[in-house]
């Protein structure tokens, strides 16, 4: 069984913001420890606005965010990426506030780093959002901001976390389902565009809707994934919630409730899962949601992790192993043991995770029979969390874990005692003239000290001594002495030879003549040479030294007095710090003897360990077969006897993370699965023995390239000339994607290409209302893969009408007209709603008509109007406007003028209809263009007196009803003021038998002429005289003598007749009356009447008389023509 681990790119950390000015923010972060290619930064406003995205180099740790808008909240995301993948995002929020100090309760600008869930926290996450009227449009944005923040805590993807949003009020609607958005940026954009719904609060119905419509397979819910619902409300539900909530939890959904403002606390607990402490949240106001959002995110993330731990993806529960212990622990090595799982398993997965940074995590897999395991190459002095899980296929049990700390690295300062120390040691001593006899004695003493440090025997340490000057000379070989006493005696007695210093020649001698089997040199035993010299070599020494070291001889160099250190370092084995020793004179040997002895001893032990390791026979004949895109078989020939197991370790050649598979000793092959296609893998096969490991058998193999087809072709964002396609990546190492598209009905094919890491494309410049066949073909190094083909269609041209105009309003109608919308409009939908509130009504008109008359409207009412073009594929955008009907406006009726004087006119009328605010009465003289006036009256008035008018003048009177929107039509009439008393009378004089003069007062205004009408009072023909307007007197002629005439004078104007002037006059008689009538001689019953005779031929005189005041008792006397007096008698 093989298990692989996938490590995501490490994200940046310590995200910080510093506001520079009202449009600029300084952003900084800490680099991840992993090598990366660069950073991707996204700046996304939470309100409508463009999203900015840019990349920066890996060396950058700060940048400036410019062109920001004050008071707008931004979500800033930063990820790190390498050549293959991208890290989880680190998200912060910022708002640049202006307008002075922050008031209490306001949010302060700065950093809000959004908490993140674990990388493996994948779930089906649904938000049920209250969109009732009580929330309000502005507060609804706070809810959307919270949803965006919580979503950002998860790793979004088709096979990762899916998100759905449902909004409810009186009814419930799906904003988008779990299977709609798999890209984080598309998901956040969709959340930001969710419209506010409005209505009542029917939470119970909405929860039931989730069960039936959202947490279903068709809506994107998955088997084997945690399910979470977050219900957000601001008030008490108007229906029952407890039973629907119980049913929702009963299908495995973990429910969180967030109450705002007037939410009912008891109801929130009925809705949510238990314990309520972790699942129920409440805030006083919408702007306080941000204060608890990280706490909510933390609880949701924990809930998802707990659900993941409880899910078994439909399989039976796998019991974990038990009794995990570390039986051996060293600085680099741990040996583990555990009791096997009682369940049927296919193997065990072992994970060693260091608790400190900088150390590598170890992942190993073993078969079902293995219950002990040795793990090596650990970090010293490091605490590891060690977990072992039972595996059945790809399903794992709960892990059993322990904590164990490796030992610190020990630095040995003494040779081990009781350890089987073996070595062949040769002392190469400089015996040149420069040393001298006295100092040579000190060299012997130094050698004695060194030799006494070792256990001398044929099975332990063997010593040889070579003295050199011009030529080397063997004092004794490795095999000569088997006791330390014999060697010490030989050292104390070997002679001082003298000569030049040929160090190079001497080292060649040691390699060719001493370290040979014939002189006692043993195989598989450490070989050590200790050079003691006091001067510079006289011959070439570098090449002999290299050859000696390459013969597996460890060289130590001791320099005395004039010895050149650089020469000693070139001769000695590295490192020089432990292999080169210098003293100022021969008396100082004792100072370095202990340190030199320990260095020699430690190197012998190390070399013995290396030799011992070489004795562990490694496996042989490494080969690979059955190579596929995702696996290959590793084969080897068995190692030596007593093999405990085989450790097969493999890693990507370009990576650091390695996986180890442990196979039993009987195995000679293993199939390595779950590999990456077309990837070079380095493989080591190591034989494990009871007390150590062999050297690894190394090899490499490359998996084959994967070729296939993309999946899940989706078409979105259709417009009239474009649509967007997305797809799931094709398997393997895709170079690019080729997209071919053409109209299904026939036409030219077109082609575009996409980079391999871009699996979306907007196809543009398409024909409206056309169905296309689209194929996405992956391109590989070896050629094209299989195509993914589907159909997509552009939308028909849709738009909105323009230039809405309202005309011809009446009290119940108005006419609407507009410019037509583009495309094939089927109908226009016209809606109209009273602005003050009321039912919305609608009418439809044909698509080729761009006007209509709205009827049955309320009088004096403002309406909100909309005109929407309806197409075969749906509706275009609405064109909005407003219009207002007229108030009912009319005229007063029945105008009557009376009580007219020479300076005033009384006007009376019947009230006008409707809400009359007042009346305006105007008047104007019809005789000139100067005299006019008006007056305003209250709405209840029905009469008025117009004063200060001109006498004998005709006026036009108008009465207007005044409404809030204007005036009605006028009620008009005419009236003429009376004449003044002086103007009424005519003066008649100069009467004759046939004429008389008539004189009158002039009429006002522009008189055209005067018409004088006169007629005998006793009957007869009427006569008319026309008189110039400038003349006010005329002589009436051709009259009858002694006849009374009724006379009328009429001024004539353009508009008609003026006020008449009336009088009468009598013509003189042909018979002249007597004159100078006198009375005299009065008595009790009589008096005399005397007169002067009338001229002409008088026939007689008639005298009539009656008492004053009583003309009924008329008396009469007739006398002759010549009489001019008479006595009236018998009077009272």
UniProtKB/TrEMBL annotation:
Comp. bias intervals (Basic and acidic residues): 795-806
Protein's UniProt name: Collagen alpha-1(XII) chain
Residue intervals of the VWFA domain: 124-300, 424-600
UniProt organism field: Pteropus alecto (Black flying fox)
GO cellular component: collagen trimer; extracellular space
Residue span of region Disordered: 783-813
Fibronectin type-III domain: residues covered: 11-101, 320-410, 618-706, 709-800, 801-889, 891-982, 983-1076
Intracellular or extracellular location(s): Secreted, Extracellular space, Extracellular matrix
Keywords per UniProt: Cell adhesion, Collagen, Disulfide bond, Extracellular matrix, Glycoprotein, Repeat, Secreted
Cited SUPFAM superfamilies: Fibronectin type III (SSF49265), vWA-like (SSF53300)
One GO-annotated biological process of the protein: cell adhesion
Family, per entry: Belongs to the fibril-associated collagens with interrupted helices (FACIT) family.
Cited SMART domains: FN3 (SM00060), VWA (SM00327)
Domain of life of the organism encoding this protein: Eukaryota
């Amino acid at each position: 069984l093989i298990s692989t681990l996938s490590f995501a790119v490490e994200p940046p950390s310590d995200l910080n913001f510093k506001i520079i000015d009202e449009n600029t923010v300084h952003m900084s972060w800490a680099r991840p420890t992993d090598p990366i290619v660069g950073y991707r930064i996204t700046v996304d406003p939470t309100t409508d606005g463009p999203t900015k995205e840019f990349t920066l180099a890996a060396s950058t740790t700060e940048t400036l965010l410019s062109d920001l808008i004050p008071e707008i909240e931004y979500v800033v995301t930063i990820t790190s990426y390498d050549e293959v993948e991208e890290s989880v995002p680190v998200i912060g929020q910022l708002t640049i506030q202006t307008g002075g100090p922050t008031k209490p309760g306001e949010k302060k600008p700065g950093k809000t780093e959004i908490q993140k869930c674990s990388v493996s926290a994948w779930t089906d996450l649904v938000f049920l959002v209250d969109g009732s009227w009580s929330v309000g449009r502005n507060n609804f944005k706070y809810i959307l901001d919270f949803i965006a923040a919580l979503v950002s805590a998860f790793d979004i993807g088709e096979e990762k976390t899916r998100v759905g949003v449902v909004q409810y009020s009186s009814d419930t609607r799906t904003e988008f389902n779990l299977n709609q958005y798999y890209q984080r940026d598309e998901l956040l954009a969709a959340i930001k565009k969710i419209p506010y719904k409005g209505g009542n609060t029917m939470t119970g119905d909405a929860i039931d809707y989730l069960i039936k419509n959202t947490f279903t397979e068709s809506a994107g819910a998955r088997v084997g994934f945690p399910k979470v619902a977050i219900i957000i409300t601001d008030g008490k539900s108007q229906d029952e919630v407890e039973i629907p909530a119980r049913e929702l939890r009963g299908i495995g959904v973990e429910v969180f409730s967030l109450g705002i403002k007037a939410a009912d606390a008891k109801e929130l607990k009925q809705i949510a899962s238990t314990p309520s402490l972790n699942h129920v949240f409440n805030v006083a106001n919408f702007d306080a949601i941000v204060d608890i959002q990280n706490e909510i995110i933390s609880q949701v993330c924990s809930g998802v992790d707990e659900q993941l731990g409880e899910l078994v993806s439909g399989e039976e529960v796998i019991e974990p192993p038990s009794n995990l212990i570390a039986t051996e622990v060293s600085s680099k090595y741990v040996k583990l043991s555990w009791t096997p799982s009682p369940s049927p398993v296919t193997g065990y997965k072992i994970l060693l995770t260091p608790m400190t940074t900088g150390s590598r995590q170890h992942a190993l897999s073993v078969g079902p029979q293995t219950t002990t395991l040795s793990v090596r190459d650990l970090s010293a002095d490091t605490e590891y969390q060690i977990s072992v899980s039972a595996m059945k296929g790809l399903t794992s049990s709960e892990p059993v874990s322990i904590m164990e700390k490796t030992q610190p690295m020990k630095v040995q300062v003494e040779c081990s005692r009781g350890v089987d120390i073996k070595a062949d040691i040769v002392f190469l001593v400089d015996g040149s003239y420069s040393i001298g006899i006295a100092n040579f004695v000190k060299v012997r003493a130094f050698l004695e000290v060194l030799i006494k440090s070792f256990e001398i025997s044929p099975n332990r340490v063997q010593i040889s001594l070579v003295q050199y000057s011009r030529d080397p000379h063997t004092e004794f070989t490795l095999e000569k002495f088997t006791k330390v006493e014999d060697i010490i005696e030989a050292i104390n007695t070997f002679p001082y030879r003298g000569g030049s210093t040929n160090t190079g020649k001497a080292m060649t001698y040691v390699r060719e003549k001493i370290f040979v089997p014939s002189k006692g040199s043993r195989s598989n035993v450490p070989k050590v040479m200790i050079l003691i010299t006091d001067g510079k070599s006289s011959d070439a020494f570098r090449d002999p030294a290299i050859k000696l070291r390459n013969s597996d001889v460890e060289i130590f160099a001791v320099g005395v007095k004039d010895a050149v250190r650089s020469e000693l370092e070139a001769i000695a084995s590295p490192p020089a710090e432990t292999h080169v020793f210098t003293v100022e004179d021969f008396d100082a040997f004792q100072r370095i003897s202990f340190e030199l002895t320990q260095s020699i001893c430690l190197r012998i032990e190390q070399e013995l360990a290396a030799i011992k390791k070489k004795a562990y026979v490694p496996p042989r004949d490494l080969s690979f077969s059955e190579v596929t895109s995702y696996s290959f078989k590793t084969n080897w020939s068995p190692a030596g006897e007593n093999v405990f197991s085989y450790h097969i370790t493999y890693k990507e050649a370009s990576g650091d993370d390695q996986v180890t598979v442990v196979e039993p000793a009987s195995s000679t092959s293993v199939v390595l699965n779950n590999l990456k296609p077309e990837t070079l893998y380095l493989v080591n096969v190591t034989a494990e023995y009871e007390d150590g490991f062999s050297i690894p058998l190394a090899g490499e193999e490359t998996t084959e390239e994967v070729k296939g087809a993309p999946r899940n072709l989706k078409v979105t964002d259709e417009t009239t000339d474009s649509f967007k396609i997305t797809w799931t990546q094709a398997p393997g190492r895709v170079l690019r994607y080729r997209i071919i598209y053409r109209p299904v009905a026939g036409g030219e094919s077109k082609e575009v290409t996409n980079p391999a890491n871009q699996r979306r494309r907007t196809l543009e410049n398409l024909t409206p209302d056309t169905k296309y066949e689209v194929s996405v073909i992956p391109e590989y190094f070896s050629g094209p893969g299989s195509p993914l083909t589907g159909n997509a269609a552009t939308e028909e041209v849709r738009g909105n009408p323009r230039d809405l105009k309202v005309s011809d309003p009446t009290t119940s109608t108005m006419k609407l007209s507009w410019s037509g919308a583009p495309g094939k409009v089927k109908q226009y939908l016209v809606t109209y709603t009273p602005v003050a509130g009321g039912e919305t009504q609608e009418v439809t008109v044909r698509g080729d008509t761009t006007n209509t008359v709205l009827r049955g409207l309320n009088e004096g009412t403002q309406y909100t109007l909309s005109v929407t073009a309806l197409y075969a594929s749906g509706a275009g955008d609405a064109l909005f406007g407003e219009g207002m009907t007229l108030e009912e406006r009319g005229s007063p009726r029945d105008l009557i003028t009376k009580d007219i004087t020479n300076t005033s006119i009384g006007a009376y009328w019947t009230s006008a209809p409707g809400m009359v605010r007042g009346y305006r009465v105007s008047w104007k003289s019809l005789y000139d263009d100067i005299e006019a006036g008006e007056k305003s009256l209250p709405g209840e008035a029905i009469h008025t007196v117009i004063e200060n008018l001109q006498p004998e003048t005709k006026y036009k009177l108008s009465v207007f009803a005044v409404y809030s929107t204007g005036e009605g039509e006028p009620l008009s009439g005419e009236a003429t003021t009376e004449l003044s008393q002086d103007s009424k009378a005519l003066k008649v004089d100069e009467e004759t038998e046939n004429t008389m003069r008539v004189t009158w007062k002039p009429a006002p205004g522009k008189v055209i002429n005067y018409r004088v009408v006169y007629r005998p009072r006793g009957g007869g023909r009427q006569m008319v005289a026309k008189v110039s307007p400038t003349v006010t007197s005329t002589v009436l002629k051709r009259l009858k003598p002694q006849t009374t005439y009724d006379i009328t004078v009429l001024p004539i104007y353009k508009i008609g007749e003026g006020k008449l002037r009336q009088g009468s006059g009598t013509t003189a008689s042909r018979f002249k009356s007597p004159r100078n009538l006198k009375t005299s001689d009065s008595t009790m019953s009589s008096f005399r009447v005397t007169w002067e005779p009338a001229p002409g031929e008088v026939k007689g005189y008639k005298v009539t008389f009656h008492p004053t005041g009583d003309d009924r008792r008329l008396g009469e006397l007739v006398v002759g023509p010549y009489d001019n007096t008479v006595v009236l008698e018998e009077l009272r």
